Automatic annotation (TrEMBL), chain A:
Belongs to the transferrin family. GO terms for biological process: iron ion transport. SUPFAM superfamilies: Periplasmic binding protein-like II. One of its GO terms (cellular component) is extracellular space. Residues 22-363, 370-675 form the Transferrin-like domain. Disulfide bonds join 25-59, 34-50, 131-227, 180-206, 203-212, 270-283, 373-410, 383-401, 477-550, 578-595. InterPro entries: Transferrin, Transferrin-like_dom, Transferrin_Fe_BS. This is Transferrin. Hydrogencarbonate 1 binds at residues 133, 137, 140. Fe(3+) binds at residues 74, 107, 221, 425. It comes from the Eukaryota. It comes from Arctia plantaginis (Wood tiger moth). GO terms for molecular function: metal ion binding. Residues 1-18 form the signal peptide.
Automatic annotation (TrEMBL), chain B:
One of its GO terms (molecular function) is zinc ion binding. Its EC number is 4.2.1.1. Pfam families: Carb_anhydrase. PANTHER family: CARBONIC ANHYDRASE (PTHR18952:SF141). It comes from the Eukaryota. Residues 2-261 form the Alpha-carbonic anhydrase domain. Belongs to the alpha-carbonic anhydrase family. SUPFAM superfamilies: Carbonic anhydrase (SSF51069). The keyword Zinc applies. The keyword Metal-binding applies. This is Carbonic anhydrase. Its cofactor is Zn(2+). InterPro entries: CA_dom, CA_dom_sf, Carbonic_anhydrase_a-class, Carbonic_anhydrase_a-class_CS.
Amino acid sequence: MAIKYVFLLALACVCVHGKSIYKICVPAQYLQACQEMLEVPTKSKAQLKCIAARDRVECLNYVQQRQADIVPVDPEDMYVASKIPNEDFVVIQEYRTKDEPDAPFRYEAVIVVHNDLPVNNLDQLKGLKSCHTGVNRNVGYKIPLTMLMKRAVFPKMNDHSISPKENELKALSSFFSQSCIVGKWSPDPKTNSAWKSQYRQLCSLCEHPDKCDYPDNYSGYEGALRCLALNGGQVAFTKVIYVRKFFGLPVGTIPAGTAEQSPDGYSYLCVDGTKVPVREKACSWAARPWQGILAHNDVLAQLTPLREKIKQLAEAGTSSKPKWFTGVLGLSEKIYHVADNIPIRPMDYLNKANYTEVIERGHGPPETVVRLCVTSNVALAKCRAMSVFAFSRDIRPRLDCVQEASDTDCLKSVQDNGSDLASVDDMNVAAAAKIYNLHPVFHEVYGDDKTNNYAVAVVKKGTSYTKMEDLRGKRSCHNSYGTFSGLVAPLYYLINKNLIGHDQCIKNFGDFFSGGSCLPGVDKLENNPKGDDVSKLKKQCSDDSNPSKCLQEDRGDIAFVASADLSSFDSSKYELLCLNRDAGGRDSFANNATCNIVKSPSRTWLAAKDFLSDVSIAHTPLSLAQLLDTRTDLFNIYGEFLKNNNVIFNNAAKGLATTEKLDFEKFKQIHDVIKGCAAA
Amino acid sequence: MADWGYTCENGPATWIEKFPEARGARQSPVDIDTSRISSGGSAPPLNMKYSVNHPRSVVNPGYCWRVDENGYHSELRGGPLGKDVYKLEQWHCHWGAKNGEGSEHTVDGRAFSGELHFVHWNTSKYNSFSEAAGQPDGLAVLGVFLMAGSKNEELDKVIRLLPFVTHKNDKVTLSDPLDPLKLLPPPKGYWTYPGSLTTPPCTESVTWILFKQPIQVSADQLASMRKLKCGEASCGVEAMELLYNYRPTLPLGNRDLRDFGGN
């Protein structure tokens, strides 16, 4: 026994002069904040060491693999952790609020009704006017749905012709007569507004039914109670602490305050149909547990110094709330009381609050899934990680992953209903859509503005060109042959404006810029199989055929590049030619979204017709992208993954957006023009 | 031509001529209309025990692939089966000409890409499979929907052998250990109703237990099934490929369709 203990101790930590060193895992972006945290003096002599991982998802793997010892997490991350094979995680500390340091859960979901509401079981909620915190939120939306769908009177939500989210909205709007459920119902703005008008009774109890979004006086924890008290609501879904505050009752360490309403007219409605006055102890139907710290099992052998250290750090940061307080420890403005709990496995911790059921909620069997096709083992691993993560965050349909040997096999798989989504790059979107009878659903967006890339034309400031005609006989620099920005966009532009003929287009292209060009790769055998004379298009190339160099060294008068490449040009010396505007003109680099040649296709995901609606298919990837938009620390789906680049998404991507039909039609048109000319 | 099959000449519509039981009021498969289901309430849990490590036979009987368990020990009990204990006799598969069709049962009118049937017989009341097969409570079949998606490694042990049983009456031995439990979806509840065999003679002897969640098999695995042939190898003329082998759904009538466990 003693030997085993020593062995565990050795595994758990490195002991230097009797002091313990614990490795805390942090998302790479908070490594510096973590180092700053180590400088904070504490009474505890336990030492922490910062281990940087890609994000929290990778941190969970690091702890499981013993590359780190602890990581602060949300309850949803505990769910993700419990799905890692051979995991031995334990929750060793809970993060509670200063207001309720003794509460077993972070919040408990309750139903509040008027005392005189003639209801004695939950089925009788049918037809009532309901007040909610907002869409997709825990106590006001997820928990009521999880619990109500168990009841036979609640409408079925497994209609596969509409998406899971629409099934929820449809069921709620037919179950309740009027409601207020504000927020973004869909990550796609068009779908969002279509649903808001189709299921308008879900907004009719709001302060601004036409907006049905935050801020609304009848949304949020207290707003739901206001909706109940002041706006004709009959039932409100909110959490205990706000009920007590709203009705002026004492909460935890806070004494009774001023009431917005007298508590006398209101009761909690319990799951068994009984009512309990709001002055008394609440009956709740599910709870969200606290956030906390996850450790691997070996840490238990030497737990106390670590716990003390974390508590002292939390106290040290409470007043000033430095970056490490939130970024590294995961504490917040309200939640900073660190409590020791009896070490417990994450799944047991969630079950205790009935929260696993809430995380795993479905829509009735068989559940819809959306199958993403990938071609490598590392992409499969990433897809599976995204699947568990999105599922833990209530994003449905569940993502499934299919592996095929190649990109074309994936496209074929989508066509044959073996998967639902496959990606293509650049102009392939038009060709692939045609060959496999597919259509685009969403695509990557880039940069801080989260837009498409654009094909742009760069010219030197002070020159006189304002439209393409002015450049006849001049010299040009290009991104390489085969790229959209370097060849396809300018070539299409010239043909489309009748500036060159569409027969022998490469030759005509060279003739237009008769001063000579640099179109890298134009003379390669695969690009010029007939061995035509393309010397004009090579004339301005030198050792470095980069278009920015080409322009800089005055080997060209114009450069055709992508908006993503503009950072390699000096914006004080160069500007853009606005070929997309009829009048032409010039503008600065910053305005490339309005001054360009044409929008570029980016990596795009294609779906087949008929099998599952596009709204269903796109909902999961778009919702995941939206959730992670500001939280790359949770899961950085765009960056490097296990030391590989461009896995599923390009490293440069910043988000995902629904593909507009109009853009796709344009890409198809460009594809047909270029294909026609290449064949001639 | 075979007595029955899935072609125009001998397909499900013609079965009733030779197999009068196929006209009955307790026929399978049926469409599971989820709005018409009555909750089963609390039933004892469904329990299965299967021997993993024993030789099995993979057979092409001309209308599917089938795995014979060769009499090794197994047990199915609980759920809607009362006190009786059932034993696994064989399991086989139904599929369609393309992904998205091929399951025999459908859910709210929607078909899956295939369906596995694990056929068990009641050892508490009867002495043999053939005796049980004629009795109203003689058989219990576990049905598992197949959805096109990621490759199923456990099922692949069988799929790998299909090229060796291309023709009717071909048979090979599967000696790798195989765990039938790994072919069942995670325990997410099931539907149950009284029905029949879905192939002639369509005897009305089956308690159906259909798992609500599908399992996934790859499109390639489904394609391998479609390459089986329904005739014997003969000189010159190649037999037709068994592109599909599912019976269309029949009316549920006044039978009770019950729902057990979870959503």
